[in-house]
């Protein structure tokens, strides 16, 4: 399953890149949670064949993760796997559908 | 589970209900089912079963789901009568909906949403490798160069990069004239030592070898190409440079204008890549070394990936 997913992703990488009418979007993913500045106009992906881009520049794009102090602490009410003193606490907010 | 296998006693995983009631008509009832199972000590068993059988129960109408959930309860050797009664009475519904109200205040209503040590990671996918990448970014953030790369090359001069790996040296002729900003960024990161110790975490014969991810997880391949270095660079596509031969060095990108540290080497012509990935160089020596890199991919029970000891940039 995992292997299939990864192979799929590399194939997607190829497939997406190969789709000439689409910009070189990554595999399906939302925008990163950062205030990434809009890319310079010159960097718009080509639409047909190899369209040269103009000169590029580099812009600030911080790894701007949001800390949310209001996230409730883990309590006995929670469903927990793993030791209480683990340095990493991963909370998954999800439904099953 | 992958994360438990990777982190052992260093991680605890918490599940909280976020039933998207407006678009998921079976989200609340399935959440109730896990609570009812949890009341009999089998929350995680029901949790896992619901993910495993998602296609089966999701195909049913909302009315028919309850009966199927009771079947699952029996399969897990729960007291099915008690389970069915609790579902019918909605014993856990108020608690689940109250939690839902609480979480709305954070404005993060996509599912799944992951939180690592109170840091949010909005919906990015369920793949554990992506989550692993996020955990590493939060717990051991890579260097951020918010001002962008220093100018370390002269676009009028010729440069080589020597990628010193655990298998030997790969010497790459850099195309500073055709991709000046991206070659400069690569050279800058190399000189900063950013690549030292990173792995070729995805190597597939006849395709590509990928590196440049400070988390070494390959979450980039799963679509999570974040600006790990604090800046991104625009594409520099030259019509003179195509993936018409093996041995091209190019940047993996999260989309237009989002080149950062991620790069790959090609093992074969890849015409589908033309125009989509900025080529910054071509292997001049050591293609045999590149081809000897251990075939691997992220995940458990995979061969140990080869390591980049350092990348040296030399003016020619």
Structural class of chain B: alpha+beta
Reading the helices and strands of chain A in chain order gives: HEEE
CATH homologous superfamily (4th level) name of the largest domain in chain B: Cyclophilin-like
- Mind summarizing the main beta sheet of chain B? 8 strands, antiparallel
- Report how far the terminal alpha carbons of chain A are from each other: 19 Å
- CATH topology title of the largest domain in chain B: Cyclophilin
Radius of gyration of chain B: 25 Å
Order of helices and strands of chain B: HEHHHHHHEEHEEHEEEEEEHE
CATH first level of the largest domain in chain B: which class? Mainly Beta
Give the % helix of chain A: 10-25%
Major pleated sheet of chain A? none
Helix content of chain B: 25-40%
Instruction: Calculate Rg of chain A over CA atoms.
Output: 20 Å
The count of β-strands of chain B is: 12
Tell me the overall shape of chain B: elongated
Helix/sheet category of chain A: alpha+beta
First-to-last CA distance of chain B: 50 Å
Query: Any low-confidence stretches of chain B, pLDDT <50, length ≥5?
Result: none
- The portion of residues forming beta strands of chain A comes to 5-15%
Oligomer: heterodimer
Word description of this protein:
The complex is a heterodimer of chains A (97) and B (316). Chain A contains 1 helix and 3 strands; from the N terminus they run αβββ. Chain A has one helix spanning 2-18; strands at 58-60, 79-81, 88-94. By secondary structure, chain B is of the alpha+beta class. Chain B has 2 domains: 2-123, no CATH class; 159-315, Cyclophilin, CATH 2.40.100. The mean pLDDT of chain B is 91. In chain B, a hairpin with a 2-residue loop joins β2 (113-116) and β3. Chain B is built from 10 helices and 12 strands. Chain B has helices at residues 2-7, 27-38, 43-52, 54-58, 62-75, 80-89, 93-104, 128-139, 180-192, 287-291, and strands at residues 11-17, 113-116, 119-121, 159-165, 168-174, 202-203, 208-211, 231-233, 248-253, 259-266, 279-285, 308-315. The chains are: A alpha+beta (97), B alpha+beta (316). Chains A and B meet through α1, β1, β2 and β3 of A and α1, β1, α2, α3 and β2 of B.
């Amino acid at each position: 399953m995992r292997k299939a997913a990864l192979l799929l992703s590399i194939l997607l990488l190829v497939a997406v890149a190969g789709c000439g009418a689409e910009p070189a979007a990554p595999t399906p993913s939302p925008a990163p949670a950062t205030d990434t500045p809009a890319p310079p106009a010159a960097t718009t992906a080509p639409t047909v064949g190899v369209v040269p881009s103009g000169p590029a520049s580099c812009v600030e794009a911080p790894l701007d993760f949001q800390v949310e102090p209001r996230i409730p602490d883990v309590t006995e009410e929670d469903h927990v796997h793993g030791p209480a003193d683990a340095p990493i606490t991963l909370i998954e907010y999800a439904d099953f559908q | 589970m992958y994360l438990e296998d990777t982190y052992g006693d260093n991680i605890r995983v918490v599940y909280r209900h976020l039933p998207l009631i407006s678009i998921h008509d079976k989200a609340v009832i399935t959440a109730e089912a896990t609570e009812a199972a949890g009341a009999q000590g089998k929350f995680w068993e029901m949790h896992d079963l619901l993910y495993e059988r998602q296609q089966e129960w999701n195909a049913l109408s909302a009315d028919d789901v309850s009966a199927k959930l009771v079947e699952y309860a029996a399969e897990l050797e729960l007291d099915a009568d008690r389970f069915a009664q609790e579902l019918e009475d909605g014993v856990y519904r108020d608690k689940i909906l109250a939690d839902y109200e609480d979480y709305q205040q954070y404005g993060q209503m996509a599912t799944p949403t992951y939180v690592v040590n109170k840091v949010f990671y909005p919906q990015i996918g369920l793949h554990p490798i992506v989550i692993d990448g996020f955990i590493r970014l939060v717990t051991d953030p890579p260097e951020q160069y918010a001002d962008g790369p220093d100018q370390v090359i002269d676009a009028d001069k010729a440069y080589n990069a020597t990628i010193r790996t655990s298998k030997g040296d790969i010497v790459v002729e850099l195309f500073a004239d055709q991709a000046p900003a991206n070659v400069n960024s690569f050279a800058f990161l190399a000189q900063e030592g950013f690549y030292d110790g990173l792995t070729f975490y995805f190597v597939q014969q006849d395709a590509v070898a990928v590196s440049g991810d400070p988390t070494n997880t390959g979450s980039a391949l799963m679509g999570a190409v974040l600006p790990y270095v604090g800046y991104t660079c625009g594409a520099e596509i030259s019509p003179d440079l195509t993936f018409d031969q093996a041995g091209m060095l190019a940047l993996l990108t999260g989309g237009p204008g989002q080149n950062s540290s991620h790069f790959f080497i090609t093992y074969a012509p890849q015409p589908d890549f033309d125009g989509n990935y900025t080529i910054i160089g071509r292997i001049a020596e050591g293609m045999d070394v590149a081809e000897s890199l251990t075939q691997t991919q992220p995940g458990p029970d995979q061969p140990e990936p080869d390591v980049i000891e350092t990348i040296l940039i030399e003016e020619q």
